[in-house]
Amino acid sequence: MKQRKKTTSTMNWIPPISLSPICFFFFFLLPIVAHGLKDQTSATMRLELIHRHDPRVFQLHGKKQSPLDKFERVKELAHRDMVRYARRTNLETFDMPMHAGRDLGAGVYFVQVKVGTPFQRFWLIADTGSDLTWFNCNYKPQNFTLRRKRRSQSRRRMFSPQRSRTFQPVTCSSQECKVDLSHLGSLQACPNTSAPCLYDFRYLDGSGAQGLFGRDTFTVGLTDGRKGKLKDMVIGCTRSMIEGPTVSKKIDGLLGLGLSEDTFVAKAASQYGGKFSYCLVDHLSHKNISNFLTFGSTISKASLLREIHTTPLVVVSPNYGLNVVGISIGGQFLRIPQIVWDFNANGGVILDSGTSLTLLARPAYLAVIEALVKPLDLVEKMKAFDPFEFCYSSKGFDENLAPRLAFHFEGGARFEPPVKSYVIDVTPEQKCIGIIGVDSPGPSIIGNIMQQNHLWEFDLVHKTVQFAPSPC
């Protein structure tokens, strides 16, 4: 949620696919023999048609076998299908590699960005609940008075504005600094007209970033193979970090995907069709497993998705809100006061890729927990630890014992996450209910673990959210 924050690609949805109908272009032709028959007029030539992932193809390139496992090979084929479709229909789309933060010990998802001219690469937290895009930075302007933590700076990748021909600092005397960027934490301090515009951006968990504003160019890879440019993008050049659950020395920075002016989403969507989407791989996936954050139109989902749901998007800047009708457990609607879902009463539900766990306002939380815990009485209980209240032994755990949870949205859309998204693995031996109660009134948040293994597409023009189950 906004900069007052947290507790802690179209992303290429890959349908179940049969290899047999994959188009001709995913195969290779190898000559076998030209057969000369007695009747020369009936002579024929035969070519063997083999799959592009056949071991012989890799042997031609000095490799024993494909470096990809079976599932990743199918994902590659489907991604190529989408690229070919974009070329045929002249759709401009770009995507950015995205993977889970397990190997960094972080419960968030990271996206690779290329910023500056020539570009510099960084892995940033993909956060739909925040609107400032920032990264660690070694810019050294005069009169820069914010304190910086020298201990951990040397371990981080740094953006060097001096190396970028397209970087322009925002001055503190400008209207942009005084007014336009005030929602991003711009400071009023201005020792002279050419001094940089400083910011102090804080999150709900107490962590934060301090630095100076600038503008620069992002380079993106279009799905037709060309390069695209997002010019004049507002960025935060962070010199000092206040570490906490959101911000730590392990990260390069944060990609603000929130809904407000001057965000990455506002700029990218305005150039690429007003849509963006992502599909979050399992949160326990290693960094070699990835998907994409995608901006622009995508292949017709009617031909890809078996179960697609659509519901109105509620803009609660910078957050993405959904109108919830109710929650059911095991097919039974729970008795939850409707005021919990009312944005006008400081309630409502927000989708947030930067929050790991799902947070429910207390009345909803109590109803959900009561309905979930009772069927799990047969499972061996383990001592819970903060922030979890109910934990169980993983040994012999049967997902069939856990009732199915479903969120019901306006328009009849039904979101039914897999059991692993709300009875989550916290250690190899222990599972816990990954839903936390928060004070009411206040918004509830559907976090990234609950969102995993689903495609989520945000249509900012028609103000809708579409989602469907997907192996990502």
UniProtKB/TrEMBL annotation:
<feature type="domain" description="Peptidase A1">
    <location>
        <begin position="109"/>
        <end position="468"/>
    </location>
</feature>
<keyword id="KW-0378">Hydrolase</keyword>
<dbReference type="InterPro" id="IPR051708">
    <property type="entry name" value="Plant_Aspart_Prot_A1"/>
</dbReference>
<feature type="active site">
    <location>
        <position position="352"/>
    </location>
</feature>
<dbReference type="InterPro" id="IPR021109">
    <property type="entry name" value="Peptidase_aspartic_dom_sf"/>
</dbReference>
<dbReference type="InterPro" id="IPR032861">
    <property type="entry name" value="TAXi_N"/>
</dbReference>
<keyword id="KW-0325">Glycoprotein</keyword>
<comment type="similarity">
    <text>Belongs to the peptidase A1 family.</text>
</comment>
<dbReference type="Pfam" id="PF14543">
    <property type="entry name" value="TAXi_N"/>
</dbReference>
<keyword id="KW-0064">Aspartyl protease</keyword>
<dbReference type="InterPro" id="IPR033121">
    <property type="entry name" value="PEPTIDASE_A1"/>
</dbReference>
<keyword id="KW-0645">Protease</keyword>
<dbReference type="GO" id="GO:0006508">
    <property type="term" value="P:proteolysis"/>
</dbReference>
<dbReference type="InterPro" id="IPR001461">
    <property type="entry name" value="Aspartic_peptidase_A1"/>
</dbReference>
<dbReference type="InterPro" id="IPR001969">
    <property type="entry name" value="Aspartic_peptidase_AS"/>
</dbReference>
<protein>
    <recommendedName>
        <fullName>Peptidase A1 domain-containing protein</fullName>
    </recommendedName>
</protein>
<dbReference type="GO" id="GO:0004190">
    <property type="term" value="F:aspartic-type endopeptidase activity"/>
</dbReference>
<dbReference type="Pfam" id="PF14541">
    <property type="entry name" value="TAXi_C"/>
</dbReference>
<feature type="active site">
    <location>
        <position position="127"/>
    </location>
</feature>
<dbReference type="InterPro" id="IPR034161">
    <property type="entry name" value="Pepsin-like_plant"/>
</dbReference>
<dbReference type="InterPro" id="IPR032799">
    <property type="entry name" value="TAXi_C"/>
</dbReference>
